[in-house]
Amino acid sequence: MKDLNRLFKLPLYLIFLLGFIIFFIAVIPARAFEISPVKALFTIDQDISETMVIKIKNSEKNDLVFKLNVLGMRQDENGRPVFEKGIDAAESWVYPENNFVNIKSGETKSVNFIIKTPADTVAGSYYLGLTVEPVLEKSDQASLSARLVSLLTLQVKGLVKESVEIEKFESLKNIFTEKKLKFDLNLKNNGTIEVLMQGKIGIRNWRGEEIFSEPIILGNKLLAGSKRVLHPEIILKNNISLPGLYSAQVKINYGRTNQIVSAISYVWYFPKWSKIILAVMILFIGFLIFWRRKK
Questions:
Q1: How many CA atoms within 13 Å lie on the side-chain side of 84?
Q2: Rounded Cα gap, residues 68 and 98, in angstroms
Q3: Tens digits of residue pLDDT in 134-183
Q4: pLDDT category, 284, cuts 50, 70, 90?
Q5: Euclidean distance between the first and final Cα of the chain, in Å?
Q6: How far is CA 100 from CA 7, 57, 94, 95, 135, in A?
Q7: 164-275 matches 31-156 in CATH topology
Q8: DSSP 123-150
Q9: Dist. CA 75–CA 54, nearest whole Å
Q10: Which of 40, 37, 41 lies closest to 57, judged by CA?
Q11: What's residue 250's pLDDT?
């Protein structure tokens, strides 16, 4: 009987789902438009003007009005881009030639963004988002859900600084009983330009001899002024067997000048079999103490 009820309910679910999809297609039509390029790099001098051209294609059935804007861009701790207003002084260096543009259905139109760098601009990289979004009907507000962004990187010529700092490198536990070691690794780019990074973690015994080394993934480029929070894991396999104190050293190569920054964290390793031996030794010592007192 239960199976029969389920059989009757299934068509009802399908009808409801189909009606839900038709509602969104018919009542809330998607705003189709494209922009190009989606990212651009400009290498410029101080106190100079440039123009970046963005092409907007309106694939909608209706004519649309698009609003143009400039946002600052930063990286979050996972390396993902975040576009916000008022986070970078470079936002005032770039502005659209016109704040609004009317594009007919099926038409592609080019719009200009003017770039003007101040004379006292510090050499380095600056990151901006050039946004294009359709204006809602009967409203002067733009549709945030339909916003597209072109990433603009401005590299101002001059002497730049590459500097990556390890703010934190610690093991999640001071004592490990398994051969999987987990760490917290926090990085910060104190330089004026983005850097590529490569890293590895090496394990050394009490003599300072490296007995194991494994590369770690550090993600995409670390932008100037950004932080990166990582949780690398390494598996020691058969390279370590004896209990004791070990040191873990992280080494990071970064930038065009191939600089190196490193940090050390200490961990105790006690395999499961060592716990049994320790328990036997404690019992043996306890027995000796008890036997001497008896005697």
A1: 9
A2: 8
A3: 997 655 555 545 889 999 999 999 999 999 999 999 999 888 878 889 99
A4: low
A5: 80
A6: 55, 15, 15, 12, 9
A7: yes
A8: SEEEEEEEEEEEBPTT-SSB-GGG-EEE
A9: 23
A10: 37
A11: 97
CA distances from 150 to 92, 113, 145 (A): 17, 11, 15
| Of 206 and 6, more confident | 206
Closest CA to 55 of 156, 135, 120, 150: 150
The whole model's pTM is what? 0.77
| Domain topology for 31-156 | Immunoglobulin-like (2.60.40)
Residue whose pair of structure tokens reads 């701790």 in the numeric block: 77
Q: How many angstroms separate the CA atoms of 94 and 131, rounded?
A: 12
Secondary structure E strands in the chain: 33-36, 39-44, 49-58, 64-75, 81-84, 94-96, 100-103, 108-116, 124-134, 148-156, 164-171, 175-176, 180-189, 197-204, 210-216, 227-230, 233-235, 244-254, 259-269
Burial of 226 (0-12, 13-18, 19+ CB in 10 A): middle
Ordered by start, the domain boundaries in the chain are: 31-156, 164-275
CATH fold of the domain at 164-275: Immunoglobulin-like (2.60.40)
